[in-house]
User: What shape does this take?
Amino acid sequence: MTIPATWRALALVVVAQEAERVKFIVEKAEQDKKIKIGRPGYRVTKQFDPGTKKRSLLFQVTTIFKGFK
Assistant: This one.
């Protein structure tokens, strides 16, 4: 049994697309590992106390940098 030429060509296109997708995923994962300058290492949450009717902001540190004191 032989595979038609159009199916082989289609299979090559699919394999090339899959390889490109995997390459993109690997590059994205490597990029996510790097610490970006200017990226905030904290989260800000708005709060409201209904008893006193006061508003406040809660700052939470989310990233601890190695070697930073």
User: Anything to note?
Assistant: DSSP finds one helix and two strands in the chain. Residues 37 and 65 are 12 Å apart (CA to CA). The longest strand covers residues 42-49.
